[in-house]
Amino acid sequence: MDEEPERTKRWEGGYERTWEVLKEDESGSLKATVEEILFQSKRKRVTESHGQVRLGMMRHLHLVVDCSRSMEDQDLKPNRLTASLKLIETFVEEYFDQNPISQLGIITTKNKRAEKLTDLAGNPKKHIVALKKAVDTVCLGEPSLYNSLHLAIQTLKHMPGHTSREILVILSSLTTCDPANICELIKTLKSLKVRVSVIGLSAEVRVCTVLTRETGGSYHVILDESHFKELLMLHVKPPPASSSSECSLIRMGFPQHIIASLTDQEANAAISTSSGADLSLGGYFCPQCHAKYTELPVECKVCGLTLVSAPHLARSFHHLFPLQAFTESPTEQLQKDRFCQACQGELKDKSIFSCPSCCSVFCVECDLFIHDSLHCCPCCIHNQSNP
Amino acid sequence: MLNIEGLLVHFPYDYIYPEQYSYMLELKRTLDAKGHGVLEMPSGTGKTISLLSLIVAYQKVFPLEVSKLIYCSRTVPEIEKVVEELRKLMEYYSKQTGESNNFLALALSSRKNLCIHPELMHANIVVYSYHYLLDPKIADLVSKELTKKSVVVFDEAHNIDNVCIDSMSVNISRRTLDRCQTNVETLQNTIQKIKETDATKLKMEYRRLVEGLKEANVARETDVYLSNPVLPDEILQEAVPGTIRTAEHFVGFLKRFLEYLKSRLRVHHVVQESTPQFLKDIFDKVCIDRKPLRFCAERLRSLLRTLEIADIADFSAVTLISNFATLVSTYSQGFTIIIEPFEDRTPTIANPVLHFSCMDPSIAIKPVFQRFQSVIITSGTLSPLDIYPRILDFRPVTMASFTMTLARTCLCPLIVGRGNDQVALSSKFETREDFAVIRNYGSLLQEMSAIVPDGIVAFFTSYMYMENIVAAWYEQGILENIQRNKLIFIETPDAAETSMALEKYQEACENGRGAILLSVARGKVSEGIDFVHHFGRAVIMFGVPYVYTQSRILKARLEYLRDQFQIRENDFLTFDAMRHAAQCVGRVIRGKTDYGLMIFADKRYARADKRGKLPRWIQEHISDGSLNLTVDEAVQLSKHFLRQMAQPFRQEDQLGLSLLTLEQLESEEMLKKISQIAHQT
Question: What are the residue ranges of zinc fingers typed C4-type (chain A) (predicted)?
């Protein structure tokens, strides 16, 4: 019974979409379509983020994933749950790539309850394993926004003040089943300076608008899968630190990787934090207490020192010294060949973007890629290496 | 500061919608021509402030042409909204010109804010309810001293004909007569008492009545008063007839009249007669002449004044009867008398009611059109525009319908004509009990409840229909499925229950639980309550809300419309159904930042005669592709629409398109565009 209507739905969906595009072209007077607005906001994101703002480098992010009945909807392929989990996996990787000294935890909510999938930790592998397992979960009942947020607060509130406290909710359902008034909880979140952002998979829900507005987070609703990915990746970049957050010097250890020989006495006293399955001889030793870890970054379980490697810190740094925003100009003004310097594609959009220091031109997509992932202008680098 | 064809208008906001400018343009032309206008502009586009700022500016520049603005609205909250806008405008004026405000505005809303200082009669702006102008019983007290050079605005006037009719119609039940009986007895006792203590008072009154109502006549001729439709001109030239001149005689007369009415209510079958027939019958049976009947209302008022009875409210029953007497003896046309021994729904319980029903709305509103130089009828839903001048019997100089300029298409009207099993959806009488239709309606609501966030409002054609459908849904388990997605609230005829349901509904929308409100077209919810933003993301209209056609009053009215105004029955019924449907679906869009789905679940909406009667601002968004959708197709479109609308939308996206700064407004290109907004008919 389920099969039949779904198939027609899918077919209708494709049909309606092409027609929708046609319709917008026809109405000439109302030419600013939603797509146009979206394009503008895409650009705005890039330009906006390059003000002189302080960004929190150490982040604590709780990811809340809705696993309620509505996640079975097949408007994302093969269904919302599988598609979301896959995207979240890439998000987790990207997150730790861009924020090496941050932590992340995952909470799932279904059947009016919230459960911890993984604790707040700095190791992407664990999360990814858990996410892979979660694909098989049965989607049941309604989500509970209240319970999930409450659960997240329990750990987040113990995090030190100089780090960011964030919650990102992936909400598919349009309802939430709460044991108490959520407005009270929003106040608590606000007082604890927890920033809650929501990505909706179906439509705009009022309570989320209020929640994100009050806590200073962002609220977006996806249009399709690629838009979903885009929205998720927005959260890779650290949010501006609130001026009220504490500034403090943090002690960090930079352990060296040492491969101990079997005869070494210290090898016996080593602790391995990785799953324990593979005991290794080599590892990182805490400069303070000589505890051994197989992976960085980590917080030393013995003396509480944050252990990082220098490249980690350096990667977190680009947030502090971002690449300049490229200047936007209409394509018509361009005298030279209309090709993007990065992807070599023809520049068809109505505006192009040029690097202020080397004057190379790029298309929108490359502009976004350079700012979001590369963090340096490829042409500038090229010029440096070939003087 | 805007320049509207040479008139400088202070507009208190930084930005203006293009349609507001266009609206003011039309309004100014109407005022210039000193004629009446019918203007339709969607709600939430700032109709009120456009009206106020233009008319106030007009008053300032041409104080001799227009000296007063009378703004009539329907409900107390609406009146308060007007006052709020007016206050903003006045503040802006005093800031701009630097001088203190010499404008006097007066708002009459409810009794608790009532002030009767005589100076208020000279106010420049009066804001009050329709009834103060249309209801002859109140109009006489409040509105008679308004000058001719006034501009009268009826806002939310899509139901103005019904208000007119109601104000002239009288329903008399047995209870009314019983209460009237007590009233008459009280009157008699009071007269007795006064006679013993202060007989001169009654003598004075007698003398005054002998002189007749000359005073009123003088006033009317010299154009001081608004004429009272209850009190026709001829009466004024005559003195109160001798038979009811003394207080005792009058009370005796009332008693006789009352007995007659009682006897008329003792019927076992339905009686319908015209007013002359009724007058002949009353003359034959109890020898009451037409003339004293005509003076009944005036005579009673005089008596109550003489007896110095403070609480007039107690005497509502006898006032009602005397008004009835005056009306029935004054108008030989446009009214009908129907006596029903029982209600249609409960044919076994005797509950006789005498309906004295007005069939011609133009009777009540005629003095308004005749007296004031400009009368503006405006609302969000007035389509088709040309029918209002016909049923209200006036000749407008401007008739225009304005569209809503939008930066994004924020309304999505869909006509769902079929279920997923291809069964045609319709609320028409033959398929009303059809199981398949009810099931498909259920699945429509269920599917929508799964994809629409927060609040959904569903309208049914009547309480009875709603009850049947909800019961069937319960049996089929549909209700349970819906409740998994949203809570369900139901409007009932009981006002307290309904307001409770509304409150809980709004709470559920607020905290993310989501809710559905099941209500009835023509009910309280469909007329007065706005579902802004999350309180109404979708409205579903189950069926076409035709009025209950078996009612004898309606039949009489239709017949009258056909004979007098050449409006075919079907045309009027469709017009009436569509204006209610438009009202219902219009509840969700209350501004340009708002968005909502409008789902018409009946295949008859796709027909040109129905669709063509929707307001232009809704009609232009119905594309050919959305005329006969199945439930699944509608779900797909809605999902897409809701996602699009959930994308961030800021003020700057509207600027230049649907929101203008002064510079943008003055550009040549924009003025050309604006001229296309108004659609003259």
Answer: 286-303
On the question of a cis peptide bond just before residue B453, with omega within 30 degrees of 0, the verdict is: no
Partner-chain contact B454 A178, CB within 8 Å: no
Shortest CA distance to B489 belongs to which of B479, B481, B476?
A: B479
Q: Nearest 5 degrees, angle CA B675-CA B579-CA B529?
A: 95
Q: How confident is the model over B371-381, as a mean pLDDT? A: 90
Q: Which two tokens stand for residue B325?
A: 């007497």
Write the pLDDT tens digit of every residue in B146-173.
777 889 999 989 889 998 998 888 899 9
Neighbours of A129 (CB within 10 A): 13
Query: What does B243-263 look like in DSSP terms, one character per residue?
Result: GGTSHHHHHHHHHHHHHHHHH
A37 contacts in chain B (CB < 8 Å)? 407-408, 647-649, 653
Q: Round to whole Å and give the CA distance between B37 and B204.
A: 47
E strand residue ranges, B476-605: 487-490, 515-520, 538-542, 596-601
Residues 6 or more apart whose Cβ sits within 8 Å of residue B185: none
Q: Phi and psi at residue B115, in whole multiples of 5°?
A: -130, 135
At position B431, the amino acid (one-letter code) is T
- Written as one letter, the residue type at A151 is L
What is the helix (H) or strand (E) element at residue B610, kind and residue range? helix B608-611
| Residue numbers in B near A12 (CB within 8 A) | 632-633, 636
For residue A45, which of A178, A231, A175, A221 has the smallest C-alpha distance? A231
What confidence tier does A58 reach under pLDDT thresholds 50, 70, 90? Answer: confident
Q: Does A183 touch chain B (CB under 8 A)?
A: yes
Other CB atoms within 10 Å distance of the CB of residue A195: 22
Q: Residue B17 has which token pair?
A: 């919608």
Highest mean pLDDT (candidates A72-86, B1-15, B187-201): A72-86
The predicted structure's pLDDT at residue A49: 52
